[in-house]
Amino acid sequence: MEHQRYGYELASGTQQDIFLCIHYISLRVDENISKALPAIHFLTGSDVTSKVGTKPAALKVKPEYIQGLATFGENLSDENCSKAEVFLVQVLKSGSKCMTMNKFRNWMYHHSKSAQISSLPPTSHLLTDHIKRAHLATYQVQHVLDEEAVTLDPLQHGYMKDPTNDSLIPKQDIRIWPEDLIKQCTCKTCSQASCGCKQSGQHCISFCKCTSLQTNKCKNPFLKESELLEAMLN
Ligand SMILES: [Zn+2]
Ligand SMILES: [Zn+2]
């Protein structure tokens, strides 16, 4: 039967298989959520994308962030990518004020007692390729019945060719924390000689306590990237 073919099978394997029609279920779901479901699915994790968060957490995200995904899958504009990133931050921490995953990582590091750098969510840099892969998958689902749909190039959407067998694999542009990088310091003002950053002649970084306090009292000041570059060149 038609509705069985497009249905969701519940209690599979039992003697009383139950089928529910997806188009009936869709009537019970909020229209904004219904439209954004493919994006929500692929962004949080699927067979073809990495898991970033859970589905229940995704469905509890405030409606304004879900509405932001309404055009996800249509194009890879900076706006769509940034709304996807903000949505994923909300999946991980509902109500967070962080607008990027980098800011959220920093917040987590300083506010979550058990957070280790290795257990933090991915950086914004890494998330970009994940969002591209989610966009590709969302686009493919949205156009599965459209014979005239343009085929998107996976190599432009977060995939690369495996040099050993030419198959497609996710890009893994991971920047490893350098082993020789000294540990972030835990002082409030970095005025004492005991400051580890000062001792090793390195500038404090955003993971140091002094910068997280946002009091600007660090005597071994954190330099912005542009200033750091200038300092390195001189
Ligand atoms: Zn210090
Ligand atoms: Zn400092």
List the topology elements:
Layout: H1 2-5, E1 7-10, E2 18-21, H2 22-28, H3 31-44, H4 55-59, H5 63-67, H6 78-92, H7 101-111, H8 124-142, E3 159-161, E4 168-170, H9 196-199, H10 209-212, H11 225-233
Antiparallel strand pairs: 1-2, 3-4
Bound molecules: zinc ion (2 copies).
Residues 185, 187, 190, 195, 197, 204, 208, 210, 220 line the site of one zinc ion (ZN).
Organism: Owenia fusiformis (Polychaete worm)
Protein name: Tesmin/TSO1-like CXC domain-containing protein
Helices and strands, in N-to-C order? HEEHHHHHHHEEHHH
How much of the polypeptide forms β-strand, as a percent range? Answer: 5-15%
> Which structural class do you get from the secondary structure elements?
mainly alpha
Please report the number of helical segments: 11
Taking the alpha carbons of the first and last residues, their distance comes to 75 Å
Q: Which small molecules are bound?
A: zinc ion
Biggest sheet record? 2 strands, antiparallel
The low-confidence runs, each spanning 5 or more residues with pLDDT under 50, are: 1-5
The outline comes out as elongated
User: Strand order of the main beta sheet, please?
Assistant: 1-2
What's the β-strand tally?
A: 4
In the residues, how many domains can be counted?
2
Provide the residue-averaged pLDDT: 84
As a whole number of angstroms, the C-alpha radius of gyration is 23 Å
